From TrEMBL:
Gene3D superfamilies tied to this protein: 6.10.140.2220, q2cbj1_9rhob like domain
EC number of the protein: 1.14.11.29
Domain of life: Eukaryota
Reaction catalyzed: L-prolyl-[hypoxia-inducible factor alpha subunit] + 2-oxoglutarate + O2 = trans-4-hydroxy-L-prolyl-[hypoxia-inducible factor alpha subunit] + succinate + CO2
Entry-linked InterPro entries: HIF_prolyl_hydroxylases, Oxoglu/Fe-dep_dioxygenase_dom, Pro_4_hyd_alph, Pro_4_hyd_alph_FE2OG_OXY, Znf_MYND
Protein name per UniProt: hypoxia-inducible factor-proline dioxygenase
Cofactor(s) listed: L-ascorbate
Fe2OG dioxygenase domain ranges (all copies): 258-356
Amino acid sequence: MEGRPREGAAAEAEAAAEAGAGAGADPDQDRQYCELCGKMENLMKCARCRSSFYCSKDHQKQDWKKHKQVCKQAENIPRPPQPESTQVCRDNSKKEQEPLQKQQNIPEKSAGFSKARVDPRSTPLIKPVSGPESGCDPQQVGHDLSNGQAMSPQQKLATEYIGPCMNKHGICVVNNFLGDELGLGVLEEVRALYTSGEFTDGQLVSQRSDSTKDIRGDKITWIEGKEPGCEKIAVLMSRMDDIVRHCNGKLGNYRINGRTKAMVACYPGQGTGYVRHVDNPNGDGRCVTCIYYLNKDWNAKEHGGILRIFPDGKAQFADIEPLFDRLLFFWSDRRNPHEVQPSYATRYAITVWYFDADERARAKEKYLTGAVEKGEKVELNRSTESCS
């Protein structure tokens, strides 16, 4: 590649892309992503620096203006040895812990959802705490003092369980978040939205439309919370906001100052899912992904639909079953690649992404100053390139 004549940035990008296309996909993909879109399947290594990856020549060309600044200096750095196990909080008071499953070899092409099978050995080893509406022991919840005042159940849940669990593991699960009555009310509203034809096919920000269904099979709609017939969904969003507000300042170094609308998603069975990917690979401002599941009597061995998370730098994965009234938090960036495994029954979820103030401001400035080139555009109003 070094011997080719240069005729401007476009020619240089094309040369780099052609060179990169000659490199085969690396078999070790635990920490590899397309630098432009975050996709993790069928990657090619940049032939110059051999440390950056792209899913296609086109994406390498689009990212060349940014990548060329570090391409010449990049070196292959040996990866540190991976730990044998990791642990996730399972109890709010005792802080008991349970190891995650060992990560198995995942096929590179996972788009053939109808042919995929549910792994019978997959079991949810994360034992979540119960939420404030689940009949928690009143002697354990809501009576600790903070600055002389009693802590609410939401505040205690946030400060004593969710915050510490996120900071230690980057993933946190809460069961029985709303309680049966309110949870069923949310489910009824979501079903009504779906049957009324409000849902459309999920889209990808950085992919051509003809490849979308090979990557994600969900149907979605966006809810602000003020729409008629969405009163219970609005209550859910308010409860999510309460939890995050109580956690604010305690979630890493983030300063959360906003969120997206709620993305209501339906995987209509028939083996639909979403391939392994990252919610926020390019710094669009989203720091925390929050998902609420609505699937009554869900049996993962029969229905599939597990959200499998591959925590960065760890040799294990975490399987999250999409159980009714379950709330899930995880970091939105490259620390948590994840996939929705094939679903063989109708599967509903509601997702909200929370913004870090500083990263969001940088993303907006990048957008407004035109630094983001075509194909690399940051979606500032909402993102559909995520799964639940």
